[in-house]
Protein 1
Amino acid sequence: MTGLPGPRRLSWLDALLLCLAFVVFATLTGLGVWQVQRLHWKLDLIEAVETRAFGEPVAPPAGEISAAEHAYLRVRILGTFRHDLSVTVKAITELGPGHWVLTPMRLQMGHVWVNRGFVPAGTDRTHWVSPDAPLKVTGLLRITEEGGTLLESNEPASGRWVSRDVAALSAHAGLQHVRPYFIDADHAAAPDAWPRGGMTIVKFRNPHLAYALTWFAMAALLLGAVVYLAFNRSRY
């Protein structure tokens, strides 16, 4: 009488494939966990924007600034623009390609950079509104954007700016006692005037839950496939 065959032993190829499957499973699961973390971060950001950006304007903080506590805080300042030190920073908005106009404002406590708004590419400076008298500016406190963007860097020597780097802008302009943030100003001029303020994006896409579920689903499918194949191979 012939005995029944024993369970099939794992070959080195089977072991290698199982190791690879485990690495892929761990990677997919890790990506899902990361997206859950991103989801909580995005929810906190949305809550911060809704709480700070749409409240009554307050005086800017006098002490240290942190993104967690002060980003998008609605503030109001009183000072005088120094238009001779204005710079333009590359921007792409819902109005098309162009530039942000950043101008330092002289305050009692020093200077603060103000993003006065957007101007389309090719707009002549003579068409910009440039108030000289002391005035109040209301807007959103923004955290400095150091260095540049992922694909481009600021080039102060050639006057080419791609990010609103407060420290670099101040050094280039020779300014001291500058607050470590900039302000996105509201649009206070005529509706069709340039620069166009009040264009800060305060609505954020939040697809992280869908991404997390996708990664977890892929991990579950992989696990199910491995279990199915292992069960079937053990029968022969």
Note: The mean pLDDT is 89.
Protein 2
Amino acid sequence: MKHLILAFFLIVPVSAICQESSYTRNIDWNRERHAWSSFWVTHPTESNVDYGVFLFRNEIELDEIPAEFIAYVSADNRYHLFVNGEEVSFGPARGSLQYWRYETLDLAPYLKKGRNIIAAEVFNLGPLRPVAQFSNVTAFIFQSEALPDQLNTGIGKWKVKKNHSYNARAVTSNMVLGKYYVAGPCDSIVAAQYPYAWEQLEYDDREWEATKIVQKGSGRGYMHGSPWMLVPRNIPMMEQKVLAFSSIARQTHDFASLDEERGFSANIPSNTKTSILIDQQALTMGFPEMNVSMGIGAKIKVTYSEALFDNERKKGNRNEIEGKEIHGYSDIFMPDGNSDRLFRPLWIRTFRFIQLDIETANKPLVINGYNFKFTAYPFEEKGMFSSDREDLQQIWDVGWRTARLCALETYMDCPYWEQLQYLGDTRIQSLISLYVAGDDQLMRNALLTADRSRIPEGLTSARGPTFVPQITPPFSLYWVDMVHDYFMYRDDPDFVKQFLPG
């Protein structure tokens, strides 16, 4: 009991930090009614409801570099936006069809005098999409304040091509040992079919097709049959940083190495089967990125897991790997034999362990580098905890890492299995965000999402966003508690008043 009291008094001063922090309101109805002159566009002939990856390009020429170049962008399901080959943004922030988010971007820092290329990778995970992902059809929308006649989709000369190198790899019950998994499919990528350098200015897109209009863009307040009611993003962009892997836990051959200077690298001889197990030593998430050369005919299977399992399929101590094997969802990458080929999955992967199962054909394979781009909501640890008890400090560190990994564009019950924002979890996560980070924006988003999910009987969905409804009555009371929490910690009566009908 003494230790519990100590922890309580150490935590109390942290509340002063969250109450003093600044925050930004987002109750401007005019922004919600943003006028759209551009159109949602898609591929003219390919299916726009099934799994697919689509590439969009538009070239412009500038006499001078502008001081500001504002653009609005969104897509269904997701997009990565590139300007002159450099990734600028990925999104949109996850929402519902009635509140579909768009990003407002200043592209000026990425532009240059003369010819410029703006490109977007848009993907739809189809029927296999995460339960948290709403969708209408595959579509992309882009609007420019500077050059609307050239850059607005449906008006400007946007071109599109389907990237046939990607195929869906469904996550089977056997992969995840029968557990409840609804976070979306993995990828099988054939490098020989990938149009490398498609986002670069020099790429030849003469055989690409003109886009097809789906629907004119519209925001909330312009409800004339639009399937996407566009509203501005109300949370920050995600934190992204490239991190190295921590260690190679074991390998069947000594083909791979990991050092500070070169990072991860491997040289796999021809006609070889080998396995390499990477241990990050703590759970993390992000976009793994592998650069390979040669290896035509090779197959690289990449399996991701929270833990290793014994012969009874139990995890046990996660630091013990002897006699254990990996089970988890997996991507497959098949190189084309050329140099500097990049493998990156469409969506984030969560892992402590990654196993590379590699089979080469008649040519050797070189892995030039392998790391990952950590991706999460940009919480900062402003609250502090101090104790001479090492185990209490470890509990704090593990707790904060858990809070970081369970926050992306919404709070998540878990980053590996579901990636769903359950209100029972979310109330606790919101309080941690207030106390430790002094950040209320993800909490505000959660309050709004739950309020907008209410059914005629008055109950909120137990989780959201989700296209698979779930009602858990006590979770609606947790939402009421969350509204009260916000009222107590933030002097923001206008924001709270909107929830009174609920």
Note: The chain is about 20% helix and 35% strand.
